[in-house]
Fold this sequence. Notes:
Elements: E1 27-28, H1 40-49, H2 63-73, E2 80-83, H3 85-97, E3 104-107, H4 113-120, E4 125-128, E5 148-151, H5 163-171, E6 178-181, E7 202-207, E8 220-224, H6 226-239, H7 246-257, H8 259-282, E9 285-288, E10 294-299, H9 304-313, E11 316-317, E12 319-320, E13 330-333, H10 337-352
Parallel strand pairs: 1-11, 3-4, 5-6, 6-7
Antiparallel strand pairs: 2-8, 7-8, 9-10, 10-13, 12-13
Helix pairs in contact: 1-7, 2-7, 3-6, 8-10
Amino acid sequence: MSKYWNPLLHSIQPYIPGEQPQDKKYIKLNTNENPFPPSPRALEAIRLAAGEDLRLYPDPEGHQLREALASSFNLAPEQVFVGNGSDEVLAFSFLAFFDPRRPILFPDITYSFYPVYADLFKLEYRTVPLAADFSLPVEPFLQNNGGIVFPNPNAPTGRFLSLDRVEFVLKRNPDSVVIIDEAYVAFGGESAVKFIDKYPNLLITNTFSKSHSLAGLRVGYALGNRDLIDGLNRVKGSINSYTLDRLALAGAREALLDREYFEQTRATVMTVREKTAERLVAIGFEVVPSCANFLFVRHRAVLAFDIYRLLKEKGILVRHFNRPRIDNFLRVSIGSDQDMDTFISAVADIVAKPQ
C-alpha cells in the first residue's frame, strides 16, 4: 500500500479477471471467450480501418455503430450508447443512475464487478440471495432501493430469469433504474429490449466480447430511453469523450451486420454446451441449467478445487471461485468440439481416480 493513494484505494477489493498464465499454452475454458474467430467481414473492416486515418480522432458519438445497433433492436439511435466494453458501460451506469442515499440491490452470487463498482462509487448495497437451485427470486427486489442490477443469464451460474419475472421487477420499481446485464443472452436467453419503450427505468447492457468473438476489441453498449442514454453521455463526456477507437467502431459494426455468421456460431456454441452437459452428468457431475456460453458444475465426490488444480496441471484452465456457497463449483467455458473432447477426457480421468 502506498502513502500516496487516495484513502478509498485502501478499502476496495478490485475485480480479479480469469487467470491468463504465460508459462505454457493452455486450453482456456476460464474466461468465457468465444471459441470461434471473429466474422471475416469484421476482420476485413478492421484491416481497412487501420490506415492513415488513425492519426485522426475517431467519431466520439460512434454514429454508424449506434445506427446499426438501433436498426438491429428496432430502436432509435438516441436510445443506444456505446463504450469500451460493457464493464465501462456498467461503471458509467453505476455512476449515472444509482442513488447513494439508498442501498442498491443485486444477487449474492453474480458478476463480481458489481460490488467493486459499488465500493468505488461509495454506494451502499444489499445482496439478494439466490435460491438453492441458483434461481433468482424477484420478491426481494420490492424493498426500498437506489437501483437494481443483475445479469440475465446470470453469471457465473448461467441461469436465465424469464421475462415475465423481469417485468415484475421493472413494474414495481418505477422510481429506480433497473439494469439488466445481457452479456450472455445470445446463447439461449431472450432480451428484455421489448420493454424499453414501456419502462423508462430499464437499461440493458451488452457486449460484443462473447457473442461476436470480439473480446480483444473491447466494445460494449447500452439500450434504454433517451433520458438514460443522455445520462450516460454526461458521464462519458466528464471522463473520456473517445471511448472507442476507429478499429473497434469498424469491426463491431461489421460483426453486427454479419448476421449469418453470428447465428451460425452461437448455435454451434449452444449445441456443444448441451452435449458437454450430458457428458458431464454421465461421469457424476451436477450441472446447473445454462443459457450462457459456459456451464456451472460440481462433482458429487471430488472437490472442485482439486479438479481445477489437476486440470491446470494437464494444461486446461477452468474458473474456480473461492467464495461462499460456490466454492465447490467450477465454471467451464464452452470451447471448440476438440477443446471439449480434451476437457471431458481429462476430467473423466481425474474423477475416476481417488484424490
